[in-house]
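so the lab meeting is tmrw and i was supposed to have these ready like two days ago... anyway. pasting both below. for each one the top line is the aa sequence and the line under it is the structure tokens. i havent really looked at them closely yet so no promises
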Amino acid sequence: MVARGTACVRRLGDGDGAETKRFRRFLVNEKVSLERLIGSWGDQTCAAVAGRHVLAIQDTSEFCFATGPDRRRGLGEIGKGGGRGALLHGMLALDATTGSCLGLVAGAVYTRNGRVQTPHAQRALEDKESRRWLDTASAAKRVLASAACVTVVADRESDIYAEWATLPADNFHLLTRAMHDRSLAGGGTLSSAAAQFAFTATRGVDLQANAKRAARQALLSLRFGPVEISRPKRDTALPESVPLSLVEVIELTPPAGVEPVHWRLLTTHAVADVTTAWQIVDWYRRRWTIEQFFRVLKTQGFRVEDSQIDSADILLKLIAVAAKAAAITIQLLQARDGRSDLQASVAFDRVQIGALGAINAKYEAKTKRQKNPHPQASLAWAAWIIARLGGWDGYRSSRPPGPITLKNGLDQFNAIAFGWSLKDVSTP
């Protein structure tokens, strides 16, 4: 998938009917279980995180597949309306200092089985879909055990009291955007407590484009302080309160007609000064990487939602495999500017690396400005070559290559690498 930039099984076979059949047999094989595929997500990540402070970013995305009354494919409802599909809850490990993607950690791929009639508030946590936030963070403790420190970063849906009360440990922290205006021990709420904190700093922050806004810079005002959130009445088995730090940034003077930024961030990290508070904001902003990860799976890459596979069980496996491939593609995207310290072997085999070397020798111009600036056989070195194949001119003054350029480069590289693999094959 990484080499060919697609999740279409027919295209993975590259016109070879026998190879396409092998891919299909792999997906339908009962021994290739969804659980084992997801369990393998973190195999390479375990070693990559050793000794680092890791941001473990988790989120959920929906995959809507074309269905009809006579062709549901075993898929359940998603979102609002009559859409049918599957959901991917994933966690990416990022280096907290550089933001480089270290790989997939854990998660879940599933489809809903009908509607739950019991109201959400009356269900136990283990019976709620939101349990995935805790389960994935718990799995991260095992996969990321060699990290020096882990900070689990998530958006508002992860603001669950049980998560605050049960998951934090030494060098295992949480950072979540608050969804609820929680009651505080001793009275008051998060919003009333924040109103008592003085704004202590202002800074311009670049906002990445998403489905709701265009990319722009926002002037954010910062305030922070300690809070202690109270246990909801229904969670009687949990501690009565949890001490946290609250960091709030607000765009006090937004452009006309633009919704102002307002992030109320809760974290188990101690926040004693302005520098640390801005660090919390910057770590939260790293969430954009997982949104980019989902785009690579969908519209800007593998186009998983175009799959015509008839069985939900097989579609879920396909998503699980594509998720691992998308994480490697993200690593290539980040390696293009030299931020990554990973080796090319995380994405390419020995023969492909040999082909990359030959292509690099051809593409490097005599001028120093167009030489590959990265260490040989590093992932950044490979990404530079793939980007050149995709049409990037190689000049540092040019705009960095994006997902489409790298995908086009990978498509080109696949054909070249196939020919390279045959160079030593003798013919009669």
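ok protien two:
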Amino acid sequence: MSGERPISSRAVRLGVLALCEFAMLLRAPGLVRAPRFYAEEGHFHFAFAFDHGFWETLAYVHTGAGYTNWIANLATACASCVPLELAPAVTTGFALVVQTLPLVIILWGRSLLFRDLPRQLAGCGVVVFAPSVDGEVWLTTLSSQVFFGLIALVILLEDFEAMGPIRRLAYPALLLLGGLSGPYALFLLPVFLLRLIVTRQRALIPACGALVLALAVQLGVVLSLNSVVDPRRFAAPSLQLAATISVHHIGIPLFGEDLTRKLAAGLGEQVFGVAFLVLAPFAFFDFHTRRLRLASPCALLVLAFGIVAAAVSQLALMGAFVGRYAVVPGYALLFCLIDRAALPKRSWSGTVALGLLVVSLAAGVLGYREHPAFACDGAHPSSWSEEVERWRKDPLAARFWKRPVSDSIRICPVGWTMELHRAGPGGQTPSSP
């Protein structure tokens, strides 16, 4: 049971949060100086919001995704209410808030894992510098669903019996919003339910209920779109599949992308799968001797890792379960290392866990600003304000009475565009000639 922290620690927690925010902004300063829309966030979500307005956008479903992404809907709906030049700043701000929430929960929550300042510092370091955090998910509401998966993970580790009334309301609300924004938070529903059944803590009921409600809504969307039977979402089990999962869900979170790919190229991807199978019996023996229960953070994290890794490997579109799909399993793995390394009695497994954690964070720091997604950071191919100015002055766009769709506005990454329908007097969209 977590105890109350002294008032003097508030300044320390605020300082840690400020440093983490600075590090997050430092990763891609171009996204702060010149915010951008990224891929489907602009091409589908904002284009729809620009044409249809705030309220209709809240119910928008991108049929290509097959589920509702409500945080992207909300952010782009708000972005449609400001001048076009400022719109990407709104969505970037929403994404930054979502990425900050896990840090706030770690620092101010009542966690079973992050019980003291050293563990909190390690947890915040993992959140910011984990090598598995693909640059593609950075500061874009399109991938805020990934960080809602992380939010669900840190909430799963909370001591629900030690919560005050604010957390009892806030956590179910966050889980509901996360579940309505994508599948990552929903993948953790089985672990929440298992913890509720085993521990019989009634305080868990609202959290489970929020995820069940979100799941019901998402299933309704999936069934209405008939996307659940899309054969491209099911990967056939194979040794190669297991090896690829081991590379992206275990290797990269532990050793970083560069070292992992060099090892995989030199030794073959199968080496990671074999290493995992060799270490699994030792991990099981360690769990058995410590008699871990579902109230144990590491037991919860191992279950979360296995369920999310299995879910994304089987449900990712066209088998593309790498990159952003491996972020949440990577967090679960590194949090488990924190739990193992922080045991009071040092053992060989605790020493190994501490060493792996140090290697992981070092790899994350060294490769922090090197992802290709940052090459299009608002300065390439041109800044958003320049794109908007070009769009407004384009002769085809100016003759909107005869052509309802403007010349395309270029967005990130390179090659992506979006088309905005310009409304005529009275808010009516002009008709085609």
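from a quick look at the 2nd one: The two ends are 70 Å apart (CA to CA). Confidence is low (pLDDT under 50) at residues 377-381, 400-405, 423-433. will dig more after coffe
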